[in-house]
Amino acid sequence: MNLLGQRWQTFIARRHPPASGSLALVHKRIYIVPTRRGLGLGLLLLISLVGAINYQLSLGFFFTFLLAGIAHSALLRTYAALLGLEIAARPAEAVFAGEAAQFPLALSEKKGRERTGITLLSPDGSATRCDVPQRGEARAAIAVAAPRRGRLTLPRSRIECRAPTGWFVAWSYLTLVSECLVYPRPEANPPPLPFGARSGGGGLQAGQGDDDFAGLREYHPGDAPSRIAWRQAARTDTLLAKTFQSPLASQVLLDWEMLAGLDTEARLSRLAAWILRAEAEGHRYALVIPGFSRPLDHGAAHRAACLAALALFPAEGSGA
Amino acid sequence: MKTEQRNALLLTGAVALALAPHLAAQPLWLMALLAALLALRAVQSLTETRALPRWLLLALTVVLIVLVFQAHRSLIGRDGGMALLASLVTLKLFEAQGKTRDSHIVVMLAYFCTGTAFLHSQSPAMFGLVMLDTVAITLAALQLERPQGAPLQQTRLAGRMLLEAVPLAILLFVLFPRLPGPLWHIPVERGARTGLSSDRMEPGQVSQLALDDSVAFRVEFDDQPPPRSVLYWRGPVFDYFDGRRWLPPQRFYVPPRIAPQGPSLRYHITLEPHQQRWLLALDMPTVLPESAQISGRLQVMSAAPVMLRQRYTLASSLTWRIDSDPGLALARQLPAAGNPRTRALAAQWQALPAEERVRAAVAYLRSNGFVYTLEPPLLRSAHSIDEFLFDTRQGFCEHFAGAFTFLMRAAGVPARVVTGYQGGEYNTAGRYLIVRQADAHAWTEVWLDGLGWQRIDPTAAAAPARIESGLARSIPQGDSLPWMLRGDDNWVRLLHLQLDVLVNDWNQWVIGFDARRQRDFLQRLGIGDFLSARYLGWLLGGVALILGGFAFVILRPRRLKLADPAARHYQRFCRKLARRGVVRMPQEGPLDFARRASNALPHLALQIDAITNEYLAIRYGGEQHRRESLRVQVTQFNP
Amino acid sequence: MNSALLPRFLEALQRLDSIILGKQDALRLALSCLLARGHLLIEDLPGVGKTTLAHALARVLGLKFQRVQFTSDLLPADITGVSIYDRQDGRFRFHPGPIFAQVLLADEINRATPKTQSALLEAMAEHQVTVDGESHPLPRPFYVIATQNPLQQIGAFPLPESQLDRFLMRLELGYPDERAERELLLGQDRRSLLSTQEPVLGIAELLAAQAEVEQVHISPALVDYVQALVAATRNDPSFACGLSPRAALGLIQASRAHAWLIGRNMVIPEDVQTIFPGVAGHRLVQRASGRPDHAAVLRLLAAIAIP
Predict the structure, then answer these.
(1) CATH number at residue A90
(2) Which one of the listed residues B133, B386, B439, B457 is annotated catalytic?
(3) Which architecture characterizes domain C216-307 according to CATH?
């Protein structure tokens, strides 16, 4: 990067401080220049002006100036498409390392102008186009590659517009504060799940568990007094006992210590893969890693909490 | 129709429209070829045929370049260059199939082609065509950037952009400094000549023009226009007779001096381009326009052929005297033989003084049953003048002028044929004279010692009405004449005259807005020259005002236009209260607001409550019939 | 609109006001909630009169009610009822639980285990109880008035969002103002006052009033406003998720009831604004903390213009 480029970068960084939540494009943060097509039109104007002078063509002059006026009209519209547009960051869905994080943005229009051809450009060059209806809102997402686990912040990206003619490009920079959680990349072919690590392997049998109420049966001598259903017994003159049961599905304990011998990232990768598999196969699982543990459970919230813990696990050598 | 098809068709149409004026000026085969290619492209976009292969396009390009060079012997300049450009745009249109970048290049070229159409004509009709095409091309450009755009909405946008451009265009049109001449020399292209010919004059030539009602030139007089009978507009002069045709002067000499004998008459002529050098002037010109000169035969000649409509000012004297002419001998030339009967007739007058000889010849034409007609019989004999004077006795002005000049020369009086226009139609709506091609005329000039060259119109002897009241009254009723040339004042004709006023103004103020007119106009604004602060003030101030004005209009937020009339009335009510300092918050409900407003303005509480209840009943209770009552109450509400 | 029923309901309100002192707005909202056929959640600190309010509502409306004190060892069957083998008949007989009432007072609902909570809430949603594969419909009207203690306490199971959505409204009572508190301290015991109350209304009147509430006019302009509010909750990044369509429907229903109680035959934005915090407050949880954010709800209400 040359000196001029650096100067420009610092200039831009100063002019576009990070904004939390949402930002509105105000006139001093919008830049506009002619595109190559616009420069072509400029050349055309020059040629027709010289032609009009040389051939003393009155209407040639008029035509040239008329084209200039149309160009100005296009310029204003290109500029107007961005001016006053409000952009807000919406929460980003977590992704796995190696995928592209999608940072959803809401573009809202409050000035009563239809805005077409708004393009969002992420620093790596991927573009999304959207039209924002008059006094409405449009959704668009900026895709950013997420190579490593952890928190990924939305980099400074560009919002630009070339509509309606493509002769001018108006742009501004989005410096919205938005984060996306990046889970560790799941190991491609993980070893089988460590079933029942806590109780020594194998599924639990019906009638042995104590998690779920299964029903009532007649009291057998020897049943624990805490299991007697006193309320129902009182109503029915029969001594009844409550029975409980654990599901046949197995329990999985995902323990950091089981994976001794692997380095941090490999461990996280495997744990992530196991969480996904346990969730997919309907097992209940618990996660224990240094500084975090989560009891047996399953479901989207559990999965998200576990993966988030893996994502935010301190990197090796970071001292935490 | 799919959007791509529609957009491709639109672009093709815009290009076709842009090329149309150019093609009309090209050789027929080139025009046909390019038109066929455009039609092919249109069909292609409709049927979604595959693009033409690259090699075929390349081959077509080479063929077209060669053909254009064949036709024009040049690939630059107006005609050759435009032919080449038209060919390339057409082929580019094929290449641009489905490619946005190439389509954008086509758009630029189409703009250029449509602008250069003014090289062919700057008429109001052409102006309209170009404006229409500019909208079409802009629409095509809009569609390239937004292919799914709704056509109607996009067309409205394109039209709006054009209208927004007009104020800036007018401002710069008026203020942009015009140069008095071109930046560099432009090669003169030989265009088709119109109107009178300066090559030769022979029977039947002027009468062809008699049916042409197109305008030759327009004249504004500084004072009262002179009577019709002296309106002889002097054009090409012919002084060599080869037995059948009259030919232009072969030798050049110093023009004789004209001594005006009456008051000088100043007038301005706006001459339609006729691609020839001679200009028209009233007999006899005394003050010439800049950059024009007078020839030995007293013809006003411009420095270059008149390719564009031109306005010039001159002055003439209606009576004059010329003392000597070094070229007088040329006006006695006659072929060695031919027309014996005419020579014999002239010989009878040899003894008379010159004036009497002229009078005798005029009397001969007047008294021998000569007929002035648009459809004279063809003169087949080798002795054409004999045939006319003694056999057919029917002719148009060139017959009379030619025969009379011959008769004079045979009688020993120096004479020559003058062509030009006679008369014209005074347009009272615009206070100027329209002279049409149909007013073309030919007459004779004879040299009388002591007076010099004097005009004799032999046609006037045979058909005095031609000079007094124009062509329509002087020919037999059976001859067919165009509407505009007929004498009766029908409404079509009056409408046409009104229209001609517009055309004339257009010519004077739009097309004729040159360096001189600009100078005059700017002086009226108090601007001396282009470097003055005042000029810059007008220019920059005007540009800033226009650009800033549109920026304001386009960039300002639009007030929400409420669809519900009840909501609009309520908004009006809120504005009235806001003026009294009670401003409704956007999130504030009508009842809450009414409570607050009533507290602030207790004396209005009843009215505020009534209006609020009315509004609530309409907007939230669905009782639309109470809308009128709300309107009335809000209107009467004056806090 | 001049409904013959309205004065009766206003009388009921007055009666309630004499029991629960100084809480007119909350009472009006509670009544709106019941008129809109919605379940009510009362959330506040212990001792401000949550249970008394629930009792009083049931009493004054003349509804048959059951009270269940939720505890951590309460089982689903304790609420729904059980099938018990009858030796005489030789078959199972269903013993209905306390849920088979017109008003179920679920005291301290957040003390029960999630399993018990969900049993109750499923019954609320489906309006029936299924035991041993047999469905038993619940009476109509059927209301759950639940109370809960907002303070995070050991052994409490906060209701998950999906369950909270089943409650049309959530009310907070707050401390009484000085005057009301003084009256409270001087007056007789509220509970004993309650036990002497005669019902003001009957079921037939409640059902008829509900039918009238259904007729209150909703204009397109008002729907615009409700939609704008709902859209704003969905777009606000500080909330974990926005209001559900069910919540939006409930908002309109409760607003209708509120308008009806005022004697208006159309809903105006003010009704919606009054109802909105009650309907949205418990549904909108902060993304960061996972807890309801009432201040944000009020902020949002202030930020949305009435179209």
Answers:
(1) 2.60.40.10
(2) B457
(3) Orthogonal Bundle (1.10)
pTM confidence score: 0.66
The least confident of B84-88, B197-201, C22-26, C32-36 is: B197-201
User: Which domain range does residue A138 map to?
Assistant: 9-183
Average pLDDT, chain B: 85
pLDDT at A243: 62
> How many CB pairs below 8 A link A and C?
29
Contact B520, B184 (CB under 8 A): no
Write down the number of H helices and E strands in chain B: 22, 20
Predicted local distance difference test score (pLDDT) of residue A208 = 41
Tokens of B10: 């639109």
CATH code 3.40.50.300 for C1-201: yes
Chain B residues with CB under 8 Å of C222 CB are 620
Confidence class for position B186, pLDDT limits 50, 70, 90? low
Residue B336: partners with Cβ closer than 8 Å, 6 or more residues away:
none
Q: Give the pLDDT of residue B561.
A: 64
Nearest CA in chain C to B568: C307
Contacts of C237 in chain A (CB under 8 A): 21, 88-91
Residues of chain C contacting B616 with CB distance shorter than 8 Å = 266, 268
The pLDDT mean for chain A works out to 82
Identify whether A3 is part of a domain: no
Which range, of B194-208, B279-293, B503-517, C17-31, averages the lowest pLDDT?
B194-208
Sequence spans of domains, chain C = 1-201, 216-307
Task: Answer whether residue A4 is part of any domain.
Answer: no
Instruction: Give the separation between CA B114 and CA B131, rounded to whole angstroms.
Output: 9
pLDDT tier, B78 (very low <50, low <70, confident <90, very high otherwise): confident
**Is B457 an annotated catalytic residue?**
yes
Q: What is the pLDDT of residue B489?
A: 60
The per-residue pLDDT for range A146-205, each reduced to its tens digit, is 999 988 988 889 999 998 899 999 999 998 888 888 999 999 888 888 875 444 333 333
| Burial letters C2-34, b for 16+ CB under 10 A, else e | ebebbebbeebbebbbebbbbbeebbbbbbbbb
**Predicted ipTM?**
0.85
Asked whether residue A111 falls in the same domain as residue A145, the answer is yes
Is pLDDT at B384 greater than 90 in this prediction? no
Q: Phi, psi at residue A41, to the nearest 5°?
A: -65, -40
Are the CB atoms for C58 and C103 separated by under 8 Å? yes
Does A2 reside within a domain? no
**From B212, B441, B500, B569, the catalytic residue:** B441
C-alpha distance across the termini of chain A, in Å: 35
Cβ proximity of B21 and B129 under 8 Å: yes
Tell me if A52 is assigned to some domain: yes
Among the listed residues C70, C49, C291, C43, the one whose alpha carbon sits nearest the alpha carbon of residue C149:
C43
- C304 to B619: CB separation less than 8 angstroms, yes or no: no
> Is residue A188 domain-shared with residue A108, that is, in the same domain?
no
Identify whether the C-beta of residue B353 lies closer than 8 Å to the C-beta of residue B446. Answer: no
**pLDDT, tens only, C190-210:** 777 777 777 888 888 888 898
Task: For residues B299-324, give the mean pLDDT.
Answer: 87
How many structural domains are present in chain A? Answer: 3
Shared domain check, A198 and A132: no
- φ and ψ of A141, to 5 deg: -125, 145
* Share in percent of chain A as helix, strand, coil (round to 5): 35, 30, 35
A188 and A241 belong to one structural domain:
no
Residues A26, A142, single domain; the answer is: yes
Q: Rounded to an integer, what distance in angstroms lies between the CA atom of residue A293 and that of residue A308?
A: 12
Does position B586 have pLDDT exceeding 90, yes or no? no
Q: How confident is the model at residue A209 (pLDDT cuts 50, 70, 90)?
A: very low
Residues A289 and A228 reside in one and the same domain: no
In angstroms, the CA B291 to CA B303 distance is 6
Q: Are residues A134 and A262 in the same domain?
A: no
